[in-house]
Amino acid sequence: MTTTVESPPVSVVSTRYRAVSVGLVALVMLVAFEAMAVATAMPVVARELGGMHLYNLAFSATLAASVIATVLGGRWSDVRGPMQPIATGVVGFVAGLLIAGFAPTMEVLVAGRFVQGLGAGLIQVALYVLVARVYPGELHPKVFALFSAAWVVPSMVGPTIAGLVVENIDWRWIFWGVSLIVIPAALLLWRGSGGQAAGDGGAGPAPGLGRKLVWATLTAVAAALIQYGSALELGGVPLLAAGVVLLAVALPRLLPAGALRAARGLPTAPVLRGLAYGALMAAQVLIPLMLINERGLTPTGAGVVLTIGALGWSAGSWLKGRGTIGNLTALRGGALMVAAGISLISLVLIDAVPIALAYVAMAVSGLGIGALHPTVSVMVLEMSRAGEEGQNSAALGVGESVFTVVAVAITGALFTATGEAYLVGLGFTVALALLAAILAPRFAQPAGAGTLEGTAS
Q1: What is the pLDDT of residues 179-211, one digit of tens each?
Q2: Three-state secondary structure along the chain?
Q3: CATH placement of domain 15-195
Q4: pTM of the predicted structure, to 2 decimals
């Protein structure tokens, strides 16, 4: 008679994974804190450097660089393992922080933000591959729940700390301070991963990578033109139009065959998450403005509403990580909750509706995106063939970034063109989230494992 001894369940904080888990969380938190803090401080930075005309470009440059780095980092991680691109990304991220921190002019600061974007893009996609290489499949949902949780504290305290630093010390310390602690976090991550994240070391250059980087660069330029042009209202129409045309040519070369028609399985991933995430991000551009102008909230009060959404995101990821929610439920239900939350907060435009509904609404949307977002990441890793996790995660990241830029641009254009009609702008974001819910079964019921490139429906 053979006695079977059950091994204790593994955890992301068990001895084997503790160091890498702490390193992952620390690195994600620092990137998140930098993003939240810079967004708060940038008006002061631009005024002090005399560069208000480059205000939007300071954000567009980071986004554009991250699209390029995501494509490069995905294949690099597949071939050589994720630690090389993570190390390079950390160096680039720190270099960008230092350039921005010492910037004498706004032009130099924009250059620093571009370098930061290159570093952040490499880090983000390589972390996905690290998860696939280091953790067993059953822990993937819990790891991505950690990623979501790592954004909560920066979302809550980042703007406040940034405000204190700007008012009482110097805005430059926002960049310098993060640079001082990124490298120790990366070293902890390196120590914790050991040799488990290494690549095969023998693969040659990725076929067609040079062409992909060209298309990635053109896509990044198109995204920047769309974002920058949409902020200039009527004067930005030529830039906006040029960006849309360029995007129509370049983006299909980066997304999988069949993605834009939602081919069953992996090709739908970047479209599904791009629609859901883009809907929420575009809505969050209008929500603070609506709460301040229409209901008289202070900027701090409006910020608390968004913080509730971040807490909801963490809670949704935690629930999905516990394995109590099925994939299709998380995807379709999550998208429907995003739509429901935005619809509910639209009711706050009615004076008789209590402002408390705004908090409930953002909690609902946060729960929804918190369940959907990491589920897509986990399923992409599960569906990917060995050695293709990086390029699949890169396509997912590119799709999310581009769809979000377009969603924000169209929402803003509709809002402006209709004389600041909040219902029109928010209604468009609800439609995007509902479309994501419709597409969810196309992704959740794939034909089989494969790559994001060339998969047919």
Answers
A1: 877 777 777 777 666 555 555 444 444 555 677
A2: CCCCCCCCCCCCCCCCCHHHHHHHHHHHHHHHHHHHHHHHHHHHHHHHCCCHHHHHHHHHHHHHHHHHHHHHHHHHHHHHCCHHHHHHHHHHHHHHHHHHHCCCCHHHHHHHHHHHHHHHHHHHHHHHHHHHHHCCHHHHHHHHHHHHHCCHHHHHHHHHHHHHHHHHCCCHHHHHHHHHHHHHHHHHHHHHHCCCCCCCCCCCCCCCHHHHHHHHHHHHHHHHHHHHHHCCHHHHHHHHHHHHHHHHHHHHHCCCCCHHHCCCCHHHHHHHHHHHHHHHHHHHHHHHHHHHHHHCCCHHHHHHHHHHHHHHHHHHHHHHHCCCCCHHHHHHHHHHHHHHHHHHHHHHHCCCCCCHHHHHHHHHHHHHHHHHHHHHHHHHHHHECCCCHHHHHHHHHHHHHHHHHHHHHHHHHHHHHCCCCHHHHHHHHHHHHHHHHHHHHHHHCCCCCECCCCCCC
A3: 1.20.1250.20
A4: 0.78
